[in-house]
Structure formats: structure tokens, C-alpha cells
Amino acid sequence: MADLSAFPITERWTPEDPSKLQLFSFPTPNGIKVAIMLEETGLPYEAHRVTLSDDDVKSDAFLSLSPNNKIPAIIDPDGPDGTPVGLFESGAILLYLGEKTGRFLGESPSDRAHVTQWLMWQMGGLGPMLGQLGFFVKFAGSKIEDPRPRQRYVDEAKRLLSVADGALDGRDWIAGPYSVADMAIAPWLNALDFYGAREIVGWHDFLNLQPYLDRFFAREAVQRGKNIPPREG
């Protein structure tokens, strides 16, 4: 059985079976990316619920694995060098799992370059910008009277949605065959509904986006992964 004692996080979130990959997460857009990838690949894993409260994400235990105090993070007891490996950052984890399983990264080096391109687009643009939009529409930023901060993110969200809509014109998935790029992008597009921001960004003007989400959420692995780990524990 794998020895995960070198990872202090396991003292608080204790594995039942240390031989399985350990996921420390919460069902946000960034969190469910990795759960969906694990469900799509069929890798055996255990999911540990790490809430977004400071008691969890800023605890010494969690910071020992994820020093950026953000979910998700993983420990793979079967690392590539024959020893356990711990990782944080959802995009890095998706690439790692794609390499580990040989799946969802594209069939050729050229395919992989395009998948990675769109994954980085989500990590550097779509996710951060929609997250800021959510702050100004649904959360504390909505109380700010100056309209300029919110408008900045409304405009940038519209621009990014236009980029995705154009890329999906005439195709089912963002980078060719279904890939980690879709697992990263679709949950963030769906977050606009949670934020109550679809109307202000003109969601229905982007004709390819809703069919794309419908295809994505019709996948059985996505249906399972979107609720892992459960919000209530």
C-alpha cells in the first residue's frame, strides 16, 4: 500500500485507500474540471471535500499541498517516477492526468499544441475574467456604485465569449476531438448562469455556446463529475 505520510494534508483529510489518487476539491468550475477528467478516464480516486472557507483552504494542512490556497489539488500515489506526487493548479493537473492516461490531449503533437492553447486560454483569460465578472454581478462588487469596474468585466466577458463562439462554429468541441480544453472551458461558461450574468453579456447572441454546453453536460462522466465532491458533507 502506498505511503502518503510525507503529505501533511492527509492528516486532516485521511485517505481510506492510499493506493488511489486523492482529490482535494470543491464543485466550483475549477474543481469539477479535475473530477470530470477522473470520471472520463476511469482512474480510481477518492474525493475529499475542501470548502472555500478559510478554515479549509488557508489551513496549514491544505497549504502544505496547495500553497496558493486554491482548490483543486491532488496526490497521485503512483507518480511518474515511481513515487507519490502532489500537484495544485487545475490546468496543470489536467495536463498531468492526460499524460498519465494518454487521453484527451489530442492524437498528434499538433493536436496537443492546439488543446494546450485552448486550455491556457481558459486558465489565463476566461476563468479569471468571468470570476471577476461574478464578483461585480453576484457578490460584494455588486454594491459598488461606480459602474466602470463592472463594465470592464462585462466587456471583456463579451469579447471572450465571442472568441469561444467563433472557435465552435462548425465543430462540436473547441480544439477538434473532445479534450481537456473542453473540460476546462465548459464549466466556466456554465458559471454565467450561477452568477446571473447571462443577460448582461448577451449570452443568446452567441449561437454556438448553448449547444456546446448541452453536448458537454449530456456526457455521463460530466454528469457524475459536476457534483464531486458534494457541496454538503
Automatic annotation (TrEMBL):
InterPro entries: Glutathione-S-Trfase_C-like, Glutathione-S-Trfase_C_sf, Glutathione_S-Trfase, Glutathione_S-Trfase_N, Thioredoxin-like_sf. It is an enzyme of class 1 (oxidoreductase). The keyword Zinc does not apply. It comes from the Bacteria. Residues 18-105 form the GST N-terminal domain. Its EC number is 1.8.4.-. Pfam families: GST_N_2. This is YfcG_5 protein. The gene is yfcG_5. Keywords: Oxidoreductase. Residues 108-233 form the GST C-terminal domain. PANTHER family: DISULFIDE-BOND OXIDOREDUCTASE YFCG (PTHR44051:SF19), GLUTATHIONE S-TRANSFERASE-RELATED (PTHR44051). GO terms for molecular function: oxidoreductase activity.
